[in-house]
Write a structure and sequence with these properties.
Oligomer: heterodimer
CATH architecture of the largest domain in chain B: 3-Layer(aba) Sandwich
Strand order of the largest sheet of chain A: 6-7-8-3-9-10
Number of helices of chain B: 13
Number of strands of chain A: 10
Structural class of chain A: alpha/beta
CATH topology of the largest domain in chain B: Rossmann fold
Largest interface: A-B, 43 and 47 residues
Number of strands of chain B: 12
Mean pLDDT of chain B: 88
Distance between the termini of chain B: 58 Å
Helix content of chain A: 25-40%
Helix content of chain B: 25-40%
Largest sheet of chain B: 8 strands, mixed
Order of helices and strands of chain B: HEEEHEEHEHHHHHEHEHEEHHEEH
Strand order of the largest sheet of chain B: 6-7-8-3-9-10-12-11
Shape of chain B: globular
Mean pLDDT of chain A: 88
Number of domains of chain B: 2
Strand content of chain A: 15-25%
Order of helices and strands of chain A: EEEHEEHEHHHEHEHEEHHH
Strand content of chain B: 15-25%
CATH superfamily of the largest domain in chain B: P-loop containing nucleotide triphosphate hydrolases
Distance between the termini of chain A: 40 Å
Low-confidence stretches of chain A: none
Number of helices of chain A: 10
């Protein structure tokens, strides 16, 4: 089998905007995800960063099959998920599981922890016969650092960090190869955040998992990711290894994003090259022509409004960046 | 008109314009719930000078927001009760004031901005009407005048096209713009102290940077005291002068910002700093603080942090609670073994 476990080709998701009640007609579309190409290799962690509204969660939902793409192809271990039949698609989905952001709303308060973690076996009953399930659930609880004897407890009896562990156990139940973490630690306190990140890294080593790690916290992504993709308004604007993105960012948006992150070291106050962007993210229903970032970009020129820059490697950089004027700028030099 | 208000404020008992704008002494707040008494704040003390930024740093449930609410006098009561201590504004103990006197202090002298601007603004009134309300109620201005002031305020917080936007409703503003409206509202009556409760937690980093630089600018212009309540160690490092770290309703360490990051002298502060992902630790395990914060209905005996602490010895597990004591000029820690903690790199 090839080394690429997941591939997205030109993935697009438009949500139609309609008008009228009786005679509905489409008056436009929210271009939540607008042509994304990604590859996930076995055993690696791909971080996806971007601000709210950039389409990262819609992308996540498409990757796990909760949302049907408007166009484009999604390959899970070589299978084109849109083309293969029902049974085959189910097997594909089994291999990619989701850990959700909010550990409070993503667990059913009326189900016991055992039922929550065991539910994937009800859906994919061929994975494990019934009598063995309870033991497997206990094994999973142990794996994520919870007490296996707590199998009959309810979610409200656990703290936020423990609930997130339950969510992770549920995602691991079907032995997937890919785990998609959508903001897995952003609802947790710093001291608990570190515990969950450590757990995710430990599981990756032990089980050989591939992660897609979506987050807005850039320092967390830097810690856990091997490669990072930066999204803006439904597109990937820059992608590269963790070092390339953080040390040598070439897209102005990436530079602004990195420079905006406060550094937990008061000695560096005022020494950072901080780029404060003006304005807000434009509406994805009506994105600007050409480069989508041009309305907030300090480098924008005529060409940016006319021609959309390709996500490609340019002379001035060693990794793909979607800017006509891609240029290295050292913005996080302070973070050492 | 504004002189009229000042006359009334001068009448506050014990007002001393040379005293500090805000001083909190041994504040206690408890919540009487069905599951027992939750002691949310257990003897918090700090002071705030004019033009100074003090950060109150802590995780959820440590009592930082409750402290802010008690200062503003907007604690949900019942179940919340201030059971002891003093909150002094320029020498006046706010806790001893009658409600209408307190209302004069609120907004006029001490103002607050909240984390979630959407739920803090009224969805059925225009932003201009809500801003103008302050001038109408506190300054007795006419509708037309107060609206003109509202436009000025929106300009002050750099909202583009203020004249048009003043007639819009909160839902028509983006998250960052809404937070600007909140700041405008807090600054409307020229307060001397601004309390910001997690002002940027709900915002994206690029917007956070905009809001924090706006706050810093306005603070400097007005020589205002800023009490910043947050859990974000990055934001604190960027803007604070003084830090009070809270755990289980107490201040466990207090120091100027540089000292705390350089040599934390309480194991909890040290643990917090170490659990931030850092570049030189890439690929390694993060050093997490083990366990969970205590329930406020059942705070451990002795030092509240002892079950999670790697320095804990017998003395820590017994009452009395280690007091906040001076460890260096302008620095205090509530740890028996602060020397070991400091020495341990």
């Amino acid at each position: 089998m090839s080394d690429i476990v997941l591939e997205a080709r030109d993935l697009v998701k438009h949500f139609p905007l309609t008008q009228g009640i009786l005679f509905k007609r489409q008056i436009g579309a929210v271009r939540a995800v607008d042509g994304i190409n990604l590859q996930l290799r076995r055993g690696e962690t791909l971080g996806i960063v971007g601000e709210s509204g950039c389409g990262k969660s819609t992308l996540a939902r498409m990757l796990v099959g909760l949302e049907t793409p408007t166009s484009g192809d999604l390959f899970v271990q070589g299978r084109n998920m849109a083309k293969v039949g029902g049974a085959e698609r189910r097997r594909g989905r089994r291999n990619i599981q989701l850990v959700m952001q909010d550990p409070y709303t993503s667990l059913n308060p009326r189900m016991t922890v055992g039922d929550i973690i065991g539910e994937p076996f009800e859906v994919h009953s061929e994975v494990l016969e019934k009598p063995k399930r309870r033991a497997r659930v206990q094994e999973l609880l142990d794996l994520v650092g919870l007490n296996p004897d707590h199998i009959n407890r309810y979610p409200h009896q656990f703290s936020g960090g423990q609930r997130q562990r339950i969510g992770i156990a549920r995602a691991l139940a079907l032995n997937p190869e890919i785990i998609l973490c959508d903001e897995p630690v952003s609802a947790l306190d710093v001291s608990i955040q570190a515990q969950v990140i450590n757990l995710l890294e430990k599981l990756q080593k032990e089980l050989g998992l591939s992660y897609i790690f979506i987050a807005h916290d850039l320092s967390v992504v830097r810690h856990i990711a091997d490669r990072v993709a930066v999204m803006y308004l439904g597109r990937v604007v820059e992608i590269g290894t963790e070092d390339q993105i953080y040390e040598n960012p070439t897209h102005p948006y990436t530079q602004a994003l990195l420079s905006a992150v406060p550094v937990p070291d008061p000695k560096l106050r005022g020494m950072r090259d901080q780029i404060v962007l003006t304005g807000d993210v434009p509406s994805p229903a009506n994105p600007p022509s050409g480069c989508r970032f041009r309305t907030r970009c300090w480098k924008a020129q005529e060409i940016c409004a006319q021609r959309e820059p390709e996500l490609a490697v340019r002379q001035s950089s060693d990794h793909p960046s979607a800017c006509h004027f891609a240029e290295v700028r050292d913005v996080v030099h302070a973070q050492r | 008109m504004s002189t009229d208000v000042n006359v009334k404020l001068d009448a506050l008992p014990g007002l001393d314009s040379n005293a500090l704008p805000l001083e909190v002494k041994d504040l206690h707040v408890e919540f009487r719930t069905r599951n027992g008494i939750a002691r949310a704040v257990n003897g918090v003390s700090f002071s705030l000078r004019a033009g100074e930024t003090r950060a109150i740093l802590g995780e959820s449930g440590c009592g930082k927001s409750v402290t802010a609410q008690a200062i503003m006098g907007i604690l949900d009561s019942p179940p919340g009760f201030v059971t002891g201590g003093e909150i002094r504004y320029r020498g006046v103990d706010l806790l001893k004031l009658r409600e209408e006197q307190r209302r004069k202090v609120r907004a006029n002298r001490v103002a607050m901005i909240f984390q979630d601007a959407l739920s803090a603004l009224n969805p059925v009134f225009t932003v201009g009407f809500q801003l103008g309300e302050l001038f109408r109620k506190h300054r007795g201005m006419s509708r037309a005048d107060s609206k003109a002031r509202a436009v000025e305020l929106l300009d002050l917080v750099k909202i583009p096209a203020a004249k048009q936007r003043v007639n819009e409703y909160p839902h028509q503003f983006s998250g960052g713009m809404r937070q600007r409206v909140m700041i405008a509202m807090a600054l409307a009556l020229d307060p001397e102290v601004l309390i910001a409760d997690e002002p940027t937690t709900a915002l994206d980093v690029t917007v956070q940077a905009q809001i924090m630089s706006l706050l810093a600018e306005l603070q400097q212009e007005r020589n205002m005291g800023l009490l910043l309540i947050t859990h974000d160690m990055g934001v604190v490092a960027d803007v604070a002068d003084q830090i009070s770290v809270m755990y289980a309703g107490r201040v466990i360490e207090e120091a100027p910002v540089r000292d705390i990051y350089e040599s934390p002298s309480h194991p909890y502060t040290k643990g917090l700093l170490e659990s931030i992902p850092r570049l030189d630790l890439k690929g390694q395990e993060l050093s997490a603080i083990k366990g969970l914060p205590p329930l406020l209905t059942d705070i451990p005996k002795g030092c509240a942090f002892n079950p999670r602490c790697r320095y804990a010895k017998d003395a820590c597990r017994q009452d009395p609670v280690p007091p906040l004591h001076r460890v260096a000029p302008a620095r205090s820690s509530a740890c028996h073994f602060w020397k070991e903690v400091q020495a341990d790199v």
